[in-house]
Amino acid sequence: MSTIPTNEKSDKTVPFTTSDDAAKAQSGNGTAVGSTSGVDLVNRVAQSAHAAIDKLANQATPAVQHLQKSLEGTGEMLHDRADKLRSTGDEWAESARSGVREHPLVAVGTAFALGLLIARLAR
Questions:
Q1: pTM of whole model > 0.90?
Q2: Calpha distance 40→49 (Å, rounded)
Q3: What is the pLDDT of residue 15?
Q4: How far apart are CA 39 and CA 24, in angstroms?
């Protein structure tokens, strides 16, 4: 099936054919030899492009898989470290609580002294 759109810039018609149309035209009257070679050229370029894309995809696949595995390992490592930091923070908070419970007057005196120091620095 052939369509002939008009070219707005030059008012010329540009034929667009499929390989089936080119084969019919060539076997029919022999006048579409130029369009057949054009179709062949387009087909060869398309095949070359497909081959290049397939080659790039095959080369990229192992790298993408390696990157995915690395990211999965990194995610697990970050979760482990976050858990360790939470547990360390909880330990420090409990240690501070027990220190305040054991020596409440020292805790109040230390808080008072820090408050005075901050007030002097803020002036």
A1: no
A2: 14
A3: 52
A4: 13
